[in-house]
Design goal:
The protein is of the alpha/beta class and 457 residues long. Helix content is 36%, strand content 16%. It folds into two domains: 177 residues, YjeF N-terminal domain (Rossmann fold, 3-Layer(aba) Sandwich), CATH 3.40.50; 268 residues, 3-Layer(aba) Sandwich (UDP-N-acetylmuramoyl-L-alanine:D-glutamate ligase), CATH 3.40.1190.
Length: 457
């Protein structure tokens, strides 16, 4: 996993380093120079313009300039405080004007050729290091070299589009205390359990309570996803419905009464590794009461999504706190509107803080959906997944995510790992599917491919 630290945390890490600022600047400059040479495909005779500010970012850019000159690159350093209207012609521009602490409206000079590639130092100038929100008109970078750890602003809002390809340069700083990390393929591969030779279907059984009479699409998607993500047995129950002729063939459909159904689930959940409740359930007050009872009384790991989240609402913390001693984790998977129903406010720009606050106040693991999906547990540890893209902005994909989470919970993954691994696999499944015309069922169908491409898969 790659560490993620806020600008404030990065400042503390810098201050605690045993090396001098000068030494760290030289290391950062060397990393930038190496990246420039990679982008240029050579050195001698190439032209590079460095827009350098007065802070550490500017110092990093100037250190890179000195190294590039020694390699035969023709370098021009321009003061970001007094730039010309248009930069001189160049083969590449280094954006070392402002770092994560920039405030104000950025108005950079023009480039002689607007297609000239830009390499950003630490973060594109004008992008907020905490929120990723862009101020003014930052240059889009072809590549960003950041130091020691990722910054939230590189992962959120405008940051990913403006940062281009991001590489993390190790300059000797200690980021072992980071409380947030970006999950990678190797992490997910290491977490997934291997199936024992004598395993059986009940070793990873999931019970999904979802849908409503005549509205079963969300329930079917969640069920299919759970099957594809490794659940050995999936029971599907729709309150008020005892027939579901279109349910996935391999699912076991079990009837639930329209009212008082939580007691039936609680009486029979002991054999199941995990439960899921909420997708397509509807908004009847009686169903909301049953969701609350199920969450408060079940001992099984449980993922709550969709209408289940609105049923919990501001009472989520009370329901989670009421769970029996030793009960499994509760995973809440809101999009922004559902987050507001739980927290009483939208996530806002600082999404890491928002997901951490809701996890702490609810006592649950929270997965906040988005172009970068965030997961937090109550103690403030957080994870991010960036595998998803705009193709997942399609009806039903959230139900697929729910099914993936419950399958991983049923296989024994801790709640936070099940959540962030599911987000990773869900995003990869979408990326492996069609570039246009993707629907939620396509994501389900590509989950096996996402699992198979993992190291050792």
């Amino acid at each position: 996993m790659l560490a993620i630290v806020t600008p404030e945390e990065m400042a503390a890490i810098d201050a605690a380093a045993p090396e001098s600022i000068g030494e760290l600047v030289e290391r950062a400059g060397a990393a930038v120079a190496r990246a420039v040479l990679e982008l240029l495909g050579g050195a001698y005779g190439k032209r590079v313009v460095v827009l350098a500010g007065k802070g550490n970012n500017g110092a990093d850019g100037r250190a890179a300039a000195a190294r590039l000159r020694s390699r035969g690159v023709r370098v021009t350093v321009i003061d970001a405080a007094r730039p010309p209207a248009t930069l001189p012609p160049a083969d590449l521009v280094i954006d070392a004007a402002y770092g994560t602490g920039f405030r104000g409206e950025l108005r950079p000079p023009g480039r002689a050729d607007p297609t000239t590639p830009v390499l950003a130092v630490d973060i594109p100038s004008g992008v907020d290091g905490l929120t990723g929100e862009a101020s003014g008109s930052p240059w889009p970078a072809t590549r960003t070299v950041t130091f020691a750890a990722l910054k939230p602003g590189l992962l959120l809002a405008d940051g990913p589009d403006l940062a281009g390809k991001v590489s993390v340069a190790d300059i000797g700083l200690d980021v072992s205390g980071a409380r947030a990390h970006l999950v990678e393929a190797a992490d997910v591969a290491a977490w997934l359990p291997t199936r024992e030779r004598d395993t059986h279907k009940w070793k990873a059984a999931a019970w999904i309570v979802a849908g409503s009479p005549g509205m079963t699409g969300a329930a079917h998607l969640a069920t299919r996803a759970a099957q594809r993500a490794g659940a050995g047995y999936v029971r599907l129950s729709t309150p008020g419905s005892d027939l579901d002729p279109f349910a996935p063939t391999e699912a076991v459909v079990t009837a639930l009464d329209a009212d008082g159904w939580a007691a039936t689930v609680l009486d029979g959940d002991a054999r199941f590794g995990a439960l899921a409740v909420g997708p397509g359930l509807g908004t009847r007050a009686s169903d909301a009461a049953q969701v609350c009872e199920l969450v408060a009384r079940s001992t099984r790991p449980i993922v709550v999504d969709g209408d289940g989240l609105r049923a919990l609402g501001r009472d989520a913390a009370d329901r989670v706190a009421a769970r029996p001693d030793g009960a499994g984790p509760v995973v809440l998977t809101p999009h922004e509107g559902e987050f507001e129903a739980l927290a009483g406010r939208p996530p806002g720009a600082d999404r890491f803080a928002a997901v951490r606050d809701l996890a702490a106040s609810s006592g649950a693991i929270v997965l906040l959906k988005g172009s970068t999906t965030l997961v937090a547990r109550p103690d403030g540890r957080a994870w991010a997944s960036t595998t998803g893209d705009a193709r997942l902005a399609s009806a039903g994909t959230g139900d697929v995510l729910t099914g993936t989470v419950v399958a991983l919970l049923a296989q024994g993954l801790p709640g936070e790992r099940a959540a962030v691994a599911a987000a990773y696999l869900h995003g990869r499944a979408g990326a492996l599917a069609w570039r246009r015309g993707l629907v939620a069922g396509d994501v389900v169908d590509h989950l096996p491919a996402a699992l198979s491409e993992l190291p050792g898969g």
